[in-house]
User: Fold Folate-binding protein from Nocardiopsis gilva YIM 90087.
Amino acid sequence: MTSPLLTRAGAVAAEPPDADVAAHYGEPAQEGRALEDAAGWIDRGNRGVVRVTGPDRLSWLHSLTSQFLDGIAPGTATEALVMETKGHIRFHLSVVEDGTAVWAHTEPGAAADLAQFLDSMRFMLRVEVEDLSDSRRVLTLAGPEREKALEAVADRLDDVPLRRAEDETDLFLPADALAPVAEALTAAGARPVGMWAYEARRIAEHRPRLGRDTDHRSIPHEMNWVGRAVHLEKGCYPGQETVARVHNLGRPPRRLVLLHLDGTAERLPEQGASIELGGRAVGAVGSSARHHELGPIALGLVKRNVPVDAEFVVDGIAAGQEVIVPPDTGANAQIGLRRRPA
Assistant:
């Protein structure tokens, strides 16, 4: 559903998968600076929203996802993955427990499939799963002054779950409250920020996005999700064997890199374009954006054995790499060799 905030002066619609929200509000560079120096709100109302209620919700989700959720305190914000048995990633969830329910937002268009999968795994447990994508909208507040702006609109947020992550706060707003709360935040000093600036910030922070930076073969160690979205001190969930094997033995097939693109190019590489080294394809590019300080950047997946100092050509554009996932990630097992007596 197209966001009502696209009617704001200067708003320009983003491209899929974010076509229902704004790419920018007329000044993308200044919007990016607001996220770094002050506060900005980002319309992410196209995100899918799922709510899980019932007394068994935390232990049940603990058994289905990569994150340690059993017994977490109200207000705890985290990330989680739902994986196939071989460790390939199906869903990425941004999660908060509010004391009565678990709220999660996921990629645009993915909530119905996520809710259907979860509902199929209920069995006799006391849980209820709802896809609230039609009635709730995600508004994200980011920047060092975000709490000040949030306090100014506290009277509008009585029944609104808040997901306070390390560097941003997600508001799960009723759909009819999206525009009024956004306007109130603007009046409180928070700047409207589009997806161009938000995505540039995400890329610069080495945070991959499911479907943009992943493919059907992606596993958590490749994507820098171990620690952030995968808890290593739990087991017995789909995909756990792959996570444990790579953690102990290493050797994930690919690794995530930040690409610093030649700023003289007038375009950004297409998603899926080849990353080439010496005329040979060694990976593929995912998200790309123009950062207000770093210039054009992108995330890419390259083969594990590609040298960490290699320079690439991406869709005809020269690119240097910044290592995100080291080639030797994992390999934490301490294995000793026993020798036969002489």
Remarks:
- DSSP finds seven helices and 18 strands in the chain.
- The CA atoms of residues 243 and 260 lie 29 Å apart.
